[in-house]
Amino acid sequence: MVSSTLFAAFLPLLGFVLAQDGSITGPTSSAAAAGYSCDATKCKLPDCNCASTDPPGGLKPEDTPMFVVFTADDAVQSYTLDAVNQFLAQRKNPNGCQPKMTYYTSLNFTNYTLVTDWYVAGNEIADHTMTHVGTPPENEVSGNLVALNQLAGIPLKSIQGFRAPFLNYSVDTLKMLASLGFTYDSSSSASVPVTDDDTDAFWPYSLDYGMANDCLAVEGLCKGEPKLPGFWELPMYALFDNRGVDGPHLMDPWLDAANGETAVNDTATLEYLKSTFTAHYNGKRQPLGLYTHPIHVSRSVPGTTVTNSTINMINAFLDWAQEQPNTWIVSSIQLLEWVRNPVPISQLDSFAPLKCSTPSVDSSLKICNGIPQNENGLLAHCAFPDFPFYTCYGCPQEPPSPAQPAPPQATESGGQTRFRLAANCSTPFWDPIKGECICNSATCAFTDQSRPIGPNGANLTGDQVSSTGDGTDASATSNPYVPFNGNGAAPLASLPAGLWAATVVGVVGALAGAYGAVARF
Ligand SMILES: [Zn+2]
């Protein structure tokens, strides 16, 4: 059973949970509500940073790059990656590398092999729960780690970030993330323009001294809580139309009517994307975010309603932003790496986290490794009726679920099972069919790190999740799975009645997201 105190703690928030859809209509914090104080003489980079509107490390704004964080949420499918690619694939950052982004991944309707490919191409894969539930129980969050490791070959240490479905999170969610070895959350809102005196547009900060965002929106947050040393918050920066603080836009702003009008107007949207960017750029260079649900800007999904005008407007904004000197399009983790080690503009070209990241694997090799030219013809097709998917790592007997995120592998007709990612090999160098690592040099050497997601509080690495011992045994997955600090998974029938409602809303939300309904999460 998941701790009943955890459930009890967020039941009072249920009314808020059900009302919240990830959009904001006004300030979610204030200086008084934040009650924030941080001792900058004790809180030092790289592991501690006070919530501040000033650039990190004492940099002057003119020495600070302008970051545009690009994120996507929900299931990963070919049409969602096509949607992202229409904005990023043709671009280059100032160092000549293609921009990378963060995909906050939920697993219903996700095609695992595309997650592998997206990760190996240098993008960040982050956690958005398994079945898309707000204020999630622990097995929704840790199960996402396990399933992405098992079926997409993402090393556990590479999944560092989390965004709550519907942006619904609680104090307990943040504590849980820290306990599961996450580095950051990005679910909160910066809801007051940078040009207002009481702006809450803080640079990413650690929670050593508690939260300073969403103090009016999430019960028990702020006034020094929760104190989570070394755990970071990346606020989501709202955009503001000509109503200023009364006209905020957060996710998928191109779906909103601007300036109090009743219909979407791409020209008006472009106007405030630019004006908000300019306010940040000419001020203290707080990052800007483009927080997308790719399904809403996909031109290949059945029933799509997005217009060419909207697609062209988003690209026009990015074209314009990239014309402003020292503007970089980045993933959440790239932004955080820079905040923790804030080198000035003059040194950015040699800053490792922003460098191009193409693994050097011989293109003639036949190896199922997340590189399309290598893995062609090697994918396993897992023909589950609700959401069939492909994977390099062998089909599970059943789709992963919070109760069993690592189902035993189904044996193929030839009798061969595949080897899941070893803890001492990185994804592009691991051959899951032969069960061997093709890395022979220091440049590709890799070791995953363990995380506290195992039975009875054990720290597990990826290959321990799927095996009983030697790390690469493909057939030894336990069933039933014994997950998560020995607490096991809560049988759904035993959930309190209120949680059923939250669960149902989450599932409906995931379905709506996957099929392009107008509601946004
Ligand atoms: Zn979502």
Question: Can you give me a brief rundown of this structure?
Answer:
It contains 13 helices and 17 strands. Strands 1, 2, 3, 12 and 13 form a five-stranded parallel sheet that branches.
Corresponding CATH architecture of the domain at 4-36 and 64-354: Alpha-Beta Barrel
Largest sheet: 5 strands, parallel
Main structural class:
alpha/beta
CATH superfamily of the domain at 4-36 and 64-354: Glycoside hydrolase/deacetylase
Please provide the ordered H/E string of secondary-structure elements: HHHEHEHEHEHEEEEEEEHEHEHHEEEEHH
Bound molecules: zinc ion
Give the beta-strand count.
17
State the share of residues found in helices, binned by percent.
25-40%
Percent in strands: 5-15%
The parts where pLDDT drops under 50 for at least 5 residues are: 1-20, 467-520
Kindly, what is the distance between the CA atoms of the first and last residues, rounded to a whole number of angstroms? 28 Å
> What CATH first level of the domain at 4-36 and 64-354 would be assigned?
Alpha Beta
Mean pLDDT rating: 86
Helix count from the secondary structure assignment:
13
**CATH third-tier fold name of the domain at 4-36 and 64-354:** TIM Barrel
General shape: globular
Plain-language structure description:
The chain has 521 residues and is α/β, with parallel strands linked by helices. The chain has a domain at 4-36 and 64-354: Alpha-Beta Barrel (TIM Barrel), CATH 3.20.20.370. Helices cover 25% and strands 11% of the residues. Strands 1, 2, 3, 12 and 13 form a five-stranded parallel β-sheet that branches. Helix 8 packs parallel to helix 9. The longest helix has 19 residues, at 497-515. Bound molecules: zinc ion (ZN). Residues 73-74, 128, 132, 165, 513, 521 line the site of zinc ion. Zinc ion is lined by residues 73-74, 128, 132, 165, 513, 521. Residues 458-474 have a biased composition (Polar residues).
